[in-house]
Design goal:
The chain has nine helices and no strands. The chain is an all-alpha fold. This is CPBP family intramembrane metalloprotease.
Length: 230
């Protein structure tokens, strides 16, 4: 007779998710700090961020139960996608409007980001980056905080702050452009956070993030051309 497969008790799984998510963030930030003073800059930290987040999700979500625990499956997926699309559309309009006002008031284009996305062809890797970010912040970390009984509003605030600050650790560009990206991250973190809180499903937040990144590409490549080279 085959022995039954034993699953770790829920408390053990929760502790593992909580510990690994914060340990990964600590490793990312330490790698970014060390790399900043080397010729490699923040590239190693960016690699740890993406590979570590995706690896963590593959490890924790290797079973159906595991995927539900980190909100990749289960919850109200239909509602999540519906409200994610609406929230993404609102952020898209806000982003484009704010960018036009920013440039018209004398703001400088994000030249370093443009160089990275075009000359290093990182634009095509954006979908992978978005998945890694959402799975870590709004999936593994967010779900573990909620299950630990942390106040929902505090959970949204904490994950948003950490997500925004993380741009200073992993973006191999100047501090001004890192700050701009961190500011862009705040509404994504807040809307995405409340979306996954209400639906227990991360995919709506992925949609919000994807739509916002489309807006960011327009911010960098299209809007400056329309405004400065009519």
């Amino acid at each position: 007779m085959n022995s039954p497969t034993l699953s770790p008790p829920p408390s053990s799984s929760l502790a593992l998710r909580f510990s690994l998510s914060f340990a990964l963030v600590g490793l990312i930030w330490l790698t970014g700090l060390a790399g900043h003073f080397t010729p490699w800059l923040e590239w190693p930290a960016l690699f740890v961020y993406v590979a570590g987040s995706l690896g963590l999700v593959l490890f924790l979500g290797r079973t159906g139960t595991g995927r539900q625990e980190i909100w990749l499956a289960g919850g109200n997926a239909g509602r999540s996608l519906y409200w994610g699309t609406l929230a993404g559309a609102v952020l898209f309009i806000m982003d484009i409007t704010n960018t036009i006002l920013y440039y018209k008031s004398g703001g400088a284009p994000m030249v370093e980001m443009e160089r990275l996305l075009v000359h290093r062809s990182l634009l095509y890797l954006f979908p992978i980056l978005i998945l890694a970010e959402e799975f870590l912040w709004r999936g593994v970390m967010f779900s573990s905080l909620i299950e630990k009984g942390v106040n929902p509003h505090l959970t949204v605030l904490l994950t948003t702050i950490l997500y925004a600050l993380n741009h200073f650790a992993v973006a191999p560009v100047g501090m001004r452009e890192r700050a701009l990206m961190a500011m862009m991250a705040v509404p994504i973190g807040v809307l995405g956070g409340y979306l996954v809180l209400k639906t227990r499903n991360v995919w709506g937040s992925v949609i919000v993030h994807m739509i916002t990144m489309v807006a960011m590409v327009l911010d960098i490549f299209v809007i400056p051309q329309l405004l400065f080279n009519p």
